[in-house]
Predict the structure.
Amino acid sequence: MSWIPTCSDVARSVSDGSYDEGPGGRRVMLRLHMAVCWFCRRYAAQVRWIDRAAKAVWGAPAPGDEAVKRRLIARLRS
Ligand SMILES: [Zn+2]
C-alpha cells in the first residue's frame, strides 16, 4: 500500500471526475476509502445528485459548471 487517500483526495477525485478514470491502483484505493468512509459516500451521493439535477435542467453539465457545482456542494455541507 503505497498511497492511502485522505477524505479530501477522495472528494477532489469525485468532483473532478478522476474517481472513475484514474489509474487502476489509485482507483482501488479510492474505492476502498469510499467503502469505509461514511462522509465520502455521502459526499459522492451529493455530487451525483447535483450532476443528475444539472442534466435534467440543462441536458448536460455545461463547461464552467464546476464553479456552480462547488457552490452548491458548499451549501449542502453547511
Ligand atoms: Zn473519507
Observations:
- The chain is about 75% helix and 0% strand.
- Residues 7-77 form one domain.
- The chain has a mean pLDDT of 83.
- Residues 7, 10, 33, 37, 39-40 surround zinc ion (CB under 6 Å).
